[in-house]
From TrEMBL:
Extent of the signal sequence: 1-22
NCBIfam families (alphabetical): MltB_2
Superkingdom, natural source: Bacteria
Identification of the protein by name: Membrane-bound lytic murein transglycosylase B
Stretches assigned to the Peptidoglycan binding-like domain: 355-398
One GO molecular-function entry: lyase activity
Principal EC category: lyase
Transglycosylase SLT domain: residues covered: 30-333
Length: 410
């Protein structure tokens, strides 16, 4: 097998010697960057030379990571831009929902005392902590295989967010210096996130909590530390004790889907007065009536609708995605209240490429709409911009991209 691998590598080098030379040159530049740019920052942050050298011994670039700017691979990067635009239903597969619900219930029973204590201390419900834990690392059961220093080093050197990842690289070195992990024992996701809660290194330092009371914070092996750290993170980001994350609702056809977004909030009572009702037919809880609520339609008019609270946006602070926050809230409800699927299913929509959606977004920007950036994704600002444009065109707003809209706005 080793011989076949060596032959394959040799063949690749012979077929594309220029690319191989370019990669070798890039590797030399990376090693120089580590010594001349990263080391002075690490030293200023309290990292010893001995620690630094051990951390980067044998570390090379990892050029198969996403979002890298590599001069010798422009063609490959162009292909990556043709990724398919993801539809929300893919985030809520039956297998993923059932696994997270089943294991979440098991661990809720196992950690009932801890979860109760954490909710009293932080106001964050245990079901929410479990749902995040499940989504991030399969409750610590998903293997985290990447070398964190290789990932963060590569992204600090070559990614579109180089400054951010360089800062995280320094934070990772500080964790090693403090004895939290050995250099090769610091494993991460492809994005550099660590441990069971998938914290970036700087967040390990800020929010790592000792949940089991043994005097140390271990987010790789300790379930109690993992749950306590997630609770601290959400509490410090503004979780409002006593409020829910949100409710699945029915939005009357007369109410524009372009009213979505965290900057268009009004009281739950006011939304109810406009005809927004809970999908299960029950009244909104009395204690929620005066609190702010925000319309959220993750698939426009082609799927379920929600009235979410400020806590929904705290969940988005953990992972900047509407679907992530929705998944966490939904799984938490399934774990705690035995709730089933959303009452309204995900409708069928056009298949598009992210590049097509990005072109549509640029068209909307040219007309003065704030879409939140032409990134090929359909966040709330893009969805409501589509709705406002449709209304201006005399169309019934759907607040979701389609082939027809792309053609008109490209």
């Amino acid at each position: 097998m080793i011989r076949r691998f060596a032959l394959a590598v040799t063949a690749a080098l012979l077929l594309n010697p220029q690319a191989a030379q370019a990669d070798a040159k890039l590797e030399k530049q990376f090693q120089v960057w580590l010594q001349q740019e990263v080391w002075p920052e690490a030293k200023a942050a309290g990292v010893r030379r001995k620690t630094f050298q051990a951390a980067f011994k044998g570390v090379t670039l990892k050029l198969d990571l996403p979002d890298l700017v590599i001069p010798s691979k422009k063609a490959e990067q162009q292909v990556q831009k043709q990724a398919e635009f993801g539809r929300p239903a893919r985030y809520f597969t039956r297998q993923t929902l059932e696994y997270n619900t089943r294991v979440g219930k098991e661990l809720r029973a196992k950690h009932s005392a801890l979860l109760s204590r954490l909710e009293k201390q932080t106001g964050v419900p245990g079901r929410i902590l479990l749902a995040i834990w499940g989504r991030e690392s399969g409750f610590g059961r998903v293997a985290i295989k990447h070398d964190a220093l290789q990932v963060l080093g590569t992204k600090g050197f070559l990614s579109t967010r180089a400054d951010y990842f360089t800062d995280e690289l320094i934070a990772a070195l500080q964790l090693i210096e403090a004895g939290h992990a050995s250099p090769r024992g610091l494993k991460s996701s492809w994005a550099g996130a660590l441990g069971q809660p998938q914290f970036m290194p700087s967040n390990v330092m800020k929010y790592g909590a000792d949940g089991d009371g043994n005097g140390t914070v271990d987010l790789f092996r300790s379930e109690a530390d993992t749950l306590a750290s997630i609770a601290r993170y959400l509490a410090d980001h503004g979780w409002v004790a006593g409020r829910d994350w949100g409710f699945e609702v029915k939005v009357p056809a007369s109410l524009s889907c372009a009213l979505e977004g965290p900057d268009q909030g009004r009281s739950i009572a006011d939304w109810a007065a406009l005809g927004v009702t809970r999908i299960n037919g029950r009244a909104f809880p009395a204690h929620e009536a005066k609190g702010q609520g925000y319309l959220m339609l993750p698939s426009g008019r082609h799927g379920p609708a929600f009235l979410v609270t400020p806590n929904f946006y705290v969940l988005k602070d953990y992972n900047e995605s509407d679907l992530y926050a929705l998944f966490v809230g939904h799984v938490g409800d399934r774990v705690r209240y035995n709730m089933g699927d959303f009452k309204v299913g995900w409708g069928k929509t056009d298949s598009l490429l992210r590049s097509e959606v990005a072109a549509m977004q640029r068209g909307l920007e040219a007309l003065g709409h704030d879409v939140g950036g032409a990134d090929g994704l359909a966040g709330s600002r893009t969805r409501r911009s589509i709705g406002r444009w449709q209304e201006a065109q005399g169309q019934t707003p759907t607040c979701w991209p389609s082939k027809a809209i792309v053609r008109q706005l490209k």
